[in-house]
What we know:
The chain is α+β, with helices and mostly antiparallel strands. It has helices at residues 12-33, 69-73, 81-102, 160-170, 182-188, and strands spanning 59-60, 65-68, 105-106, 109-110, 117-120, 136-139. Strand 1 and strand 2 (65-68) form a beta hairpin. The longest helix is centred in the first third of the chain and has 22 residues, at 12-33. The radius of gyration is 19 Å and the shape is globular.
Amino acid sequence: HNLGHMKQPDNPIWIKIRQYNSRMLVKLMQELESVPEGSGTMMDNTLTIGSGRGEIFGAWKGLGVEQQGHNLGHMKQPDNPIWIKIRQYNSQMLVRIMEALDAVPEGSGTMMDHTLIVYTSNNADYQHTSGKNWPVMLLGNFDGAFKTGCFTQLDGKRPLNALYVTLLRAAGKKCDRFNMSEQLAKKFDNGTGPIKELLA
Length: 200
């Protein structure tokens, strides 16, 4: 949080962070490229892609949008042509990723068959959200671990942390809570363990 409030251009701390992130991304891409076709699954490899800080809060100037991401977050979003343009672009890029994964043979299927893409908002229903309504789209089924082709609406109190527990359980990690103490869980989570409605 404190880093985010620092001046970023030419800041040696941010230069060091970005150089490290770039090296790790290149390293991961090299590892992915080195895996022979049909040599097994890629379930141990996780690639997280965020919008980054960009011009302080991110920007979509390539789409003809001049406003920065932070200002966009404070705009009314339903039926907003700017947000429609951004989301259409994001969706197109998402489809390209899925098509690329589906074109790579892996094990008994394709790389997409063994992948789960978690696509969500960084601040849910509105800027400075309370987190009460947090839409998430799961694409793929992680080698059959997740239900597909359905819409699931959860009633009650299951925080976003419960989704992370679900992902970890699907990956073989035994845990009942993620980044939440027992005291906090009693206050904010009326369940424990994974979100069973999402698992196959």
